[in-house]
TrEMBL record:
Major localization listed first in the record, in broad terms: membrane
Keyword annotations: Membrane, Repeat, Transmembrane, Transmembrane helix
Protein location: Membrane
Protein's name in the database: PKD/REJ-like domain-containing protein
UniProt cross-references to PANTHER family, sorted A to Z: PLAT DOMAIN-CONTAINING PROTEIN, POLYCYSTIN-1
Transmembrane helix in keyword set: yes
Length: 1273
């Protein structure tokens, strides 16, 4: 018989009894329920449905006897439990209230509820588990409908764990089939001692409020009442109160008064066991709360406007304004309104509406201190500010943070959901080529928009706070409101004097911190009976986050039983994976569960709850299924785009890790019911944009692995798409214009998503590259010009509008251009202002048209290179723009000298480092590939310009690193990726053992079938450099160079060992330029009565000299081909023309279209000599008329194979030899035991690569040479 272990009262339960092995026997069988009721088992299978009115333990067994037999035989008795289903409505729980509980004297908490069985109790005060109780072990039928009492003693030790005051008590009532939570407050009263009430001596009037504070040395809870009376009339003019539940040492209330006068405030603090009072006096009269001083007008010897913003109570004051050493100006200050409308204000770091503005004009050109004294009847308020020195040569018009706001920096705060990048624009009214800008970003935490940021409110920012671009991460600052201020100080490069200063502000909001994570392996995983330990791990490393991050793991047999709070999970037992233990399992970084400790069930659920200071608690779940038979161990690993909400911008790359699997399958299940098969029989599966665009709602992707026995296991991942912005529009104005002259503006609006700032990226396309013109929160691209390739030209512009998690939409625009024969040289001044202020975004916009116009002088190009080399870069978008700028510089203006080569190489180093160590989460694969493509273009130009062979070798190592960026999103099984410039061609692919190598055996590319460990990924990069990049050394001349890098591993790559690659054939193209020559042979036919016999002969002369005497055995290779007649065999002979004794002969008896003769150099004369090549062909029995001719093509050359030796800093030949039996037009090189060279750059990892080269010896003047393909193997 089969049976569960726990049932609910009243639940209908099916029992199934099966009789087996009774064929031919006359049996009398009965089934007994709890030893009372019986049912006759008349067939082989009996199904009976029963329900149980009362809880308790029951049993069931079957008894049979053979007819005629006296003694029956009995099946094993099975026991099961029936329990009452608990609910709040049934239990009717209430707490018996005592008059009070005195802290910390021992007391009791008493709860009453209707009787149900069984019940286990757990009591928790706040987050502290106090105690647990169990009910009586047996059911008492007499107690039905009566009340049950549960008593919990709280002694002094327990109370001190939580302290005095009001606390929330959680009472959990549970059994194996249900659970109920009852929440109630409890008060532990502590005697109040030493009350003291305080306020300022002078306070303000309505509508402004003032603070009254009260302190006690001990006591909680505290009900604090405030009574304010006039000292003249003794009438109460204001009452307020506050309640402190616990931690009542300091309490604060706000109060307001409408009239001036002297008042007494009395504070009364009470609780159930004590009462205390305290009083003090103060005076109310109009107050000044804040003053902000600034100025406008930076020109030499002009009138300066000084602005004084004053926020205070309504009323009249005496005001004294002193600027520098000037005579004080006295006046009456009247504040008559609570809000003012201002126009034409300078930029302010606060909302100016509550401020009264006082203006003053003075003439001064030195920095001045401004002192403001404001008096009421009793007080003097003193505020001091400074106005900067008037700058004689200022070209600065304004400083603007690119935050996308129209009405100034403090309209509405920008909400930082993940991260926010702010950059600054400096606008100039003139040009000065030699200047620098020092930037300083500051952040001030404020409580409202009207608060003036003070020095004491400043918080520390990251290292980018002195750069023109600031990165703010949501988790880097505490939640709250911040004024972000940028200071720009312009100094001259020649005299290092200050030329101008400016600043701008914006307001940002940091919400509560959240940690986005998932449990590795998928949302649903399967494990077979052969699995002994199940492992669970979070997708992020919490050690990188500030604060004490806490992890709590829980396990339940149903998802409904998983706790929403970790506190409940620590006391709840119902639904536990481990019988009657709590749902809480561990607080370690990872969780391991032994399968044999789980209660029998088909499926389980694990929840990880993450919490910490200033972090909202978040959780992630994983369902795991235990199969009823052995199964392969399948782990679903996500390599890219692995957040709960995937990014619409980059592919999701998944891998099934399974050592025993021989076959794999993938399926995408959409909410519409559509099933899509993916990535047929591959361990890796890439869901690119075309697939992700179909995922409109939450969907599942499932990977399944099959072993050799046909057993299978699956793992699933939930795909939740983010919602992209919508409802807006983008326009460009004007729609047409003149290249290099017309300034275009792109505007977008209508895409706002509350206070969450959207990211806007503006691109144009040029050749096979896209150019990033601007990125950030600004929805407008202003005053940009475009180049033109032809007289009439259309420029494509597209705008990416992205919300959180890179949920983006793209808007396509275009403008029509006509080419201007006179390029606009005014942009030169704009460019130098941009590069001097390190404004990368403006530089990218200006460099696009300028690189095509070629309007910079040589000395200007030098300055541009020097300035661009100093650009700070932090974010991936700024890296993309810098790479675009350098590509335009190199492509448009070239590389002038070695100094520029070194500068650009350093820029490439910084770009590489930033891409590999991104400070932002905006890791767009398309952007990374675009950066790598631009850098490869620039690097190939540097290699062409430089004559330093060591530099070229190092840059070839850079090519390998850049290739890794290009192939980052490749997976095994995808087509080979190709990329190239005019001088460099690259091929990239990834392989593993279960993917057929598409390049092995190819005529242009060959790879070994290298067996990698544990089905690891093999990464292959091949770069081929043509002759325009000169790799010659003093001792060796080479025609072409190819670098090969083969590594294993997805993220942490290691080079393939030589032992793995031993006895393998590695082939790649090394095209050289040997020549071809044509000779004409006259046919002679000899005929008799038996038939004809025809033959022909021809010859060619070429000069020979010994190529080398030591080292590898080289071969003179001769190809005879393209005969325009059918021949039977061919004979070639080689001899000197000086009647010497040297003579070689080679006979070919096969009928071929091409004949190849490879002659070892050791067999040829060791002196300079002229060689005569004679070719004799047998044409067989055919008849040829007199004068018939045969045209033959002859190719002769010597190829040498070399590889780069790091230690020698030269090409080596010892382990790289020409293969003697080369194929048709192929010359192969045998490479044996070549150790990969490791080029190490400062601060970079070593990059293993093997660099091969060939050298072709050409015999001049005698034969016209053309081309041959050479393969090194």
């Amino acid at each position: 018989m089969t049976i569960d272990t726990h049932f609910q009262t009243g639940e209908k339960v099916q029992f199934v009894a099966t009789l087996t092995g009774a064929t031919g026997l006359n049996l009398d069988c009965k089934v007994f329920y709890n030893q009372k009721n019986e049912t006759e088992l008349s067939t082989e299978t009996l199904t009976v449905e029963r329900s149980f009115e009362y809880p308790g333990m029951y049993s069931i067994y079957a008894e049979c006897k053979i007819n005629g037999s006296i003694k029956p035989f009995t099946a094993e008795e099975l026991f099961f439990h029936v329990e009452d289903a608990l609910s709040a409505s049934k239990l009717q729980i209430y707490q018996q209230q005592s008059t009070f509980h005195t802290y910390p004297a021992s007391t009791e908490l008493i709860f009453h509820h209707k009787y149900y069985f069984p019940i286990s109790y757990a009591l928790m005060v706040n987050d502290v588990i106090i105690t647990e109780l169990q009910t009586a072990p047996t059911f008492d039928e007499k107690k039905i409908s009566s009340n049950e009492t549960a008593k919990f003693e709280l002694n002094a030790t327990m109370q001190r764990l939580v302290g005095p005051g009001i606390h929330y008590v959680t009472l959990l009532l549970q059994n194996n089939v249900s659970s109920v939570t009852f929440l109630t407050p409890v008060t532990f009263n502590e005697e109040i001692k030493h009350l003291k009430v305080m306020t300022k001596q002078y306070v303000g009037l309505q509508p402004n409020s003032f603070i009254i504070s009260a302190t006690v040395s001990q006591g909680a809870p505290v009900n604090l009442s405030i009574d304010i009376k006039s000292t003249q009339t003794r009438l109460t003019v204001y009452k307020t109160s506050t309640f402190c539940s616990r931690d009542c040492h300091s309490m604060v209330v706000e109060a307001t008064l409408s009239r001036a006068g002297i008042y007494e405030v009395e504070a009364t603090a009470r609780n159930k066991i004590s009462l205390m009072t305290s009083n003090t006096t103060f005076e109310a009269l109009p107050q000044i709360f804040d003053v902000y001083i600034t100025s406008r007008g930076f020109n030499f010897e002009t009138r300066r406007e000084v602005f004084v913003f004053i926020r205070g109570d309504l009323g009249k004051y005496e005001m004294n304004l002193t600027i520098g050493e000037n005579t004080a100006k006295n006046s009456t200050l009247t504040i008559s309104k609570s809000e003012y409308e201002h126009e034409g204000l300078p930029n302010l770091p606060f909302d100016a509406k509550p401020y009264k503005l006082i203006k003053d004009e003075s003439i001064f050109n030195e920095a001045r201190q401004v002192t403001v004294l404001i008096r009421n009847d009793k007080q003097t308020f003193r505020f001091v500010g400074n106005v900067p020195k008037a700058l004689q040569t200022s070209c600065l018009e304004s400083v603007r943070i690119r935050d996308g706001k129209v009405g100034g920096g403090l309209d509405e705060p920008l909400k930082v959901v993940e991260e926010l990048v702010l950059s600054v624009d400096l606008n100039f009214i003139c040009v000065r080529e030699l200047f620098s800008v020092d930037y300083k970003w500051r952040a001030y935490r404020v409580t409202s928009r009207v608060d003036i940021p003070k020095t004491g409110d400043e918080v520390q920012l990251n290292a980018s706070s002195v750069e023109p671009e600031l990165l703010i991460k949501a988790n880097a600052l505490l939640p709250g409101l911040y004024v972000i201020k940028v200071y720009a100080n312009i100094t001259s490069d020649d005299y290092h004097m200050s030329l101008a200063k400016g600043d701008d502000f914006t307001l940002v909001e940091i919400p509560a911190r959240r940690l986005n994570f998932v449990i590795k392996g998928g949302n649903v995983v399967e494990a077979g009976l052969n699995t002994t330990v199940l492992k669970f791990e979070s997708s992020i490393d919490f050690t990188k986050h500030e604060g004490n991050i806490k992890r709590d793991w829980f396990c339940a047999v149903t998802q409904e039983d998983l706790p929403m709070t970790k506190e409940i999970g620590k006391i709840q037992r119902k639904g536990s994976c481990f019988d009657w233990k709590t749902l809480w399992v561990s607080d370690n970084d990872t969780l391991e569960i032994s399968r044999n400790k789980l209660i029998p069930s088909e499926q389980y659920y694990v929840r990880l709850i993450i919490s910490g200071p200033h972090y909202d608690a978040t959780f992630a779940d994983q369902k795991f299924i235990i199969k009823s038979k052995p199964a392969p161990v399948v782990i679903l690993r996500c390599w890219s785009n692995c957040e709960k909400l995937f990014s619409s911008h980059k592919p999701i790359i998944l891998q099934l890790e399974c050592d025993d699997c021989i076959r794999h399958s993938w399926e995408l299940s959409l909410k519409s019911g559509q099933q899509m098969s993916l990535c047929k029989n591959q361990r890796f599966c890439k869901l690119n944009k075309s697939i992700l665009d179909k995922v409109k709602t939450s969907s599942n992707v499932t990977g399944t692995g099959y072993n050799i026995d046909g057993d299978k296991a699956s793992a699933s991942l939930i795909l939740a798409p983010p919602i992209p912005p919508s409802g807006g529009i983008c326009k460009v104005h004007p729609r047409s214009g003149i290249a290099y002259v017309t300034k275009f503006n792109v505007t977008c609006h209508g895409y706002a998503q509350g206070r969450v700032p959207l990211k806007y990226k503006f691109f144009t396309a040029e050749k096979d590259q896209n150019n990033l013109l601007q990125h950030g929160c600004d929805p407008n691209l202003n005053d940009v010009t475009f180049p033109s390739k032809t007289i009439f030209y259309d420029v494509m512009i597209w705008v990416e509008i992205c919300g959180p998690r890179q949920a983006c939409i793209v808007k396509n625009l275009s403008v029509s251009l006509t080419k201007n024969h006179h390029d606009n040289t005014d942009v030169i001044s704009d460019l130098f202002n941009a590069i001097s202020s390190q404004n990368l975004q403006q530089t990218a916009q200006l460099m696009l048209p300028m690189s095509s116009a070629n309007i910079l002088e040589r000395f200007q190009i030098k300055k541009v290179y020097e300035r661009v080399a100093k650009y700070p870069i932090k974010t991936l978008m700024s890296v993309k723009q810098l790479a675009d700028v350098v590509r335009h510089l190199v492509d448009g203006f070239g590389v002038i000298n070695d100094y520029h080569v070194r500068l650009i190489a350093k820029i490439m180093d910084r770009i590489e480092y930033t891409v590999r160590n991104p400070s932002t989460s905006d890791d767009d694969d398309d952007v990374i590939r675009s950066i790598a493509a631009s850098c490869i273009f620039v690097t190939s130009h540097l290699m062409q310009f430089s004559d330093d062979i060591s530099f070229k070798i190092k840059e070839s190592s850079r090519m390998t690193r850049l290739g890794k960026l290009l192939m980052a999103s490749l997976i095994p099984g995808e087509d080979t990726m190709t990329f190239g410039t005019k001088s460099v061609k690259g091929k990239f692919l990834k392989l593993n053992n279960d993917v057929i190598n598409p390049l092995n055996g190819s005529s242009s590319f060959r790879l070994p079938n290298i067996q990698t460990l544990n089905n690891e990924v093999m990464n292959v990069e091949v770069f081929t450099y043509d002759s325009s990049i000169n790799f010659n050394t003093r001792t060796h001349k080479v025609d072409q160079v190819t670098s090969v890098s083969m590594t294993t591993g997805w993220r942490n790559e290691i080079p393939i060992s030589r032992n793995d690659a031993k006895n393998q054939t590695i082939g790649f193209p090394l095209p050289a330029q040997p020549g071809k020559g044509n000779i004409t042979m006259r046919v002679e036919s000899e005929c008799d009565v038996a038939g004809c016999h025809s033959k022909a002969a021809g010859w060619a002369l070429f000069d020979w000299k010994l190529y080398k005497r030591d080292g590898n055995d080289l071969f003179l290779t001769i190809h005879v081909e393209n005969m325009d007649q059918k021949i039977r065999n061919c004979t070639m002979s080689l001899q000197t023309t000086d009647q010497g004794s040297f003579k070689l002969k080679k006979e070919f008896h096969e009928k071929e279209l091409l004949y190849t003769w490879s002659i070892s150099e050791r067999s040829l004369p060791h002196r300079q000599v002229e060689l005569n090549l004679t070719v004799f062909v047998d044409l067989g029995a055919g008849f040829y008329r007199i004068g018939s001719l045969i045209n033959v093509t002859i190719t002769s050359f010597i190829l040498n194979c070399l590889h780069w030796e790091d230690r020698m800093r030269d090409w080596g030949e010892s382990s790289c030899t020409v293969h003697q039996n080369a194929g048709i037009f192929n010359c192969e090189c045998d490479v044996d035991q070549v150790t990969p060279n490791r080029v190490k750059r400062s601060g970079e990892e070593e990059i293993p690569q093997i660099i091969y080269a060939s050298h072709l010896l050409v015999f001049p003047n005698k034969i016209n040479y053309d081309q041959v393909k050479i393969f090194v193997t």
